[in-house]
Structure formats: C-alpha cells, structure tokens
Amino acid sequence: MLDLTGQTITEVTGDGQLSIHTDGGWLITIESRIVYKAEDGTTQELTGEEPETAAVLAPVLTGHPIQTMTITEADGLTMTITPNVELTMPPDEDFEAWNIVGPTNERIVSMPGGELVTWNPMAP
Q1: In the prediction, which pLDDT does 124 show?
Q2: Which of 49, 92, 96, 108 lies 20 to 30 angstroms, CA to CA, from 74?
Q3: 8 Å CB contact between 20 and 82
Q4: 112 with 92: CB under 8 angstroms?
Q5: CB neighbours of 14 closer than 8 A, spacing ≥ 6?
Q6: Beta bridge partners of 28
Q7: CA-to-CA distance for 104 and 124, rounded, in angstroms?
C-alpha cells in the first residue's frame, strides 16, 4: 500500500477541502472528519471542509516530514508528523473521506464506507 513516509509537507491549504502537499509532488485531500492529536496530547475533531482547519494545521504540519503513514479500510488514513502529532482521517459512511494523488497521477481514494480504490500511474 502507498507510503509517503519521509516526504516533507510543503503546504497546507483549505477552501472547501483540506489539501496537504509534499515535496515529492503528492497531494492529500481531505473532505471529511479529521482527528488531530496535538503535541500536548490533546485531541481535536476537525473537518476538511472548514477553512479554519488549514489555519489550525498549517503551522503544525508545514516543513515537517511524515514519520509514519498507515492506510486501512477499517481505520482510514493515519499520519504521524512528529512523535506527538498525529492525524487520523477515518472512513465516512456516506462520502469520499480523503484521496491521495501522486506526481504521475497514481491515486488512492477512501470511498463511502471505507473501501479503498486505487488507480495506477498514467502511461507517458
């Protein structure tokens, strides 16, 4: 399964969806619920649809490498950014929760209910 461990987050934006860009040309788009575990150990529920989410996460994520990444149908997408900062994007029962697009158009999408659908890189 896809693993972006080691890639540095270069930009975090939000306008109807949270977009996380990496230095390897990957884009993680989150349109649903986000469970944000902050460095102080507190947990906050956010949503990718709210513009304020980018304001909260950009200063915490930008410039840091993804330390671990796991993707499962049951639990969704989880990324550890620093030893104490973690984002979990669980599946959504009714909507696509998140997707990841690579530099050659490879793609993985968390479909409604959590099914993971992948597309391979496009041929040149």
Answers
A1: 45
A2: 49
A3: no
A4: yes
A5: 48, 50, 51, 52, 53, 54, 55
A6: 20, 100
A7: 9
First to last CA, the chain: 23
Question: Do residues 38 and 60 make contact, with C-beta atoms less than 8 angstroms apart?
Answer: yes
Q: What is the distance between the alpha carbons of residues 22 and 81, in angstroms, rounded to a whole number?
A: 12
In which domain, by residue range, is 36 found? 9-119
Alpha carbons 68 and 73: distance in angstroms, whole number: 17
68 falls within a domain: yes
- Count up the domains in the chain and report the number: 1
Condensed to tens digits (0 to 9), the pLDDT of residues 61-113 reads 999 999 999 999 999 999 999 888 999 999 999 999 999 999 988 999 999 99
pLDDT tens-digit map of 46-57: 999 998 999 999
Residue 29: is its pLDDT beyond 90?
yes
pLDDT value of residue 1: 66
Asked whether residue 50 is assigned to any structural domain, the reply reads yes
Residue 4 forms part of a structural domain? no
Structure-token match 């306008």, residue found: 15
Return phi, psi of residue 74, to 5°. -75, -40
